[in-house]
């Protein structure tokens, strides 16, 4: 799978993450990095998700930058030229997902330039970077999770303000309008992020509808089809230094770490 790695610079660590990384980052800027298949939706980021029981690390990329992601993802990056020197990884600190929640980060290209890190039940430690950038207008999982969080802020141990950014319309589709994910979630009568089977179906529908029939509503490629805009947004973000190519050698990694 060829993903786009999105670099979300830390603006303010949560108190517990701050304590865990104290004195360990040096002069480096720290970023949460999310793997996405939909760089053209980055305008609509409203938050970022981590798994609360997933172990993350803060890894040195070089002298200037450090990434928060899973060890597995850092290993992949070290073989893809993102983390240097090749094949070598230096973990500066270990971070439990629960500790990262509440961290404020920059969301590159997003209409809301700063967002918060929130918890999601269904983050897989074995996919991407283990960090998921959230676009509730176009991702059913992100939309449903955001709604769950808003309903039960105490249960999820979050401040209501962290989940307060509303979905932003960024792509229009003929069948579902300007908010594809909320419309599909409603159509499939999805009630919570625990409805994983229906959410998988919703994701499939949203992917197809967005890719084949979507039109950009915002940004430099406004009015263009998603098919045309997708590679252009990706290239622009990579050129701007806020994204990078990230490949996932499916199966291989799993059999290696087993
Ligand atoms: C932003 C985004 C916007 C995404 C959207 C999707 C959609 P796939 O197809 O199964 O490979 N993702 C990335 N890593 C993880 C993880 N570790 N655990 C759970 N979810 C993860 O899935 C790739 C997509 O799943 C990624 O693209 C990411 O969410 C999420 F409008 O990034 B995406 C219809 C989907 N729309």
TrEMBL record:
Q: Which domain of life is it from?
A: Eukaryota
Q: Tell me its family.
A: Belongs to the class-I aminoacyl-tRNA synthetase family.
Q: Return the protein name.
A: leucine--tRNA ligase
Q: Name its species.
A: Laccaria bicolor (strain S238N-H82 / ATCC MYA-4686) (Bicoloured deceiver)
Span within the parent record = 278 to 535 of 1097
């Amino acid at each position: 799978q060829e993903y786009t790695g999105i670099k979300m610079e830390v603006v303010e660590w949560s108190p517990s993450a701050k304590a865990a990384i104290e004195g360990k980052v040096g002069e480096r800027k720290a970023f949460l990095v999310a793997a996405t298949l939909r760089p053209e939706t980055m305008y609509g980021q409203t938050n970022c998700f981590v798994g609360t029981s997933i172990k993350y690390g803060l890894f040195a990329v070089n002298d200037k930058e450090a990434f928060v992601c899973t060890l597995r993802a850092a290993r992949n990056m070290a073989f893809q030229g993102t983390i240097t020197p090749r094949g070598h990884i230096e973990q500066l600190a270990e971070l439990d997902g629960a500790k990262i929640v509440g961290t404020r980060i920059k969301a590159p290209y997003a209409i809301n330039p700063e967002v918060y890190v929130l918890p999601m039940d269904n983050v897989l430690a074995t996919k991407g970077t283990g960090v998921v950038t959230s676009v509730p207008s176009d991702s059913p999982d992100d939309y449903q999770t955001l709604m769950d969080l808003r309903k039960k802020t105490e249960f999820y141990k979050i401040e209501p303000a962290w989940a307060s950014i509303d979905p932003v319309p960024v792509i229009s589709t003929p069948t579902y309008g300007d908010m594809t994910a909320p419309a599909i979630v409603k159509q499939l009568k999805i009630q919570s992020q625990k409805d994983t089977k229906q959410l998988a179906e919703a994701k499939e529908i949203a992917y197809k509808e967005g890719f084949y029939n979507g039109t950009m509503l915002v940004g430099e490629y406004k009015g263009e089809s998603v098919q045309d805009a997708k590679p252009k947004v990706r290239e622009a973000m990579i050129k701007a230094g806020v994204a990078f190519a990230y490949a996932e050698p499916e199966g291989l990694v799993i059999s290696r770490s087993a």
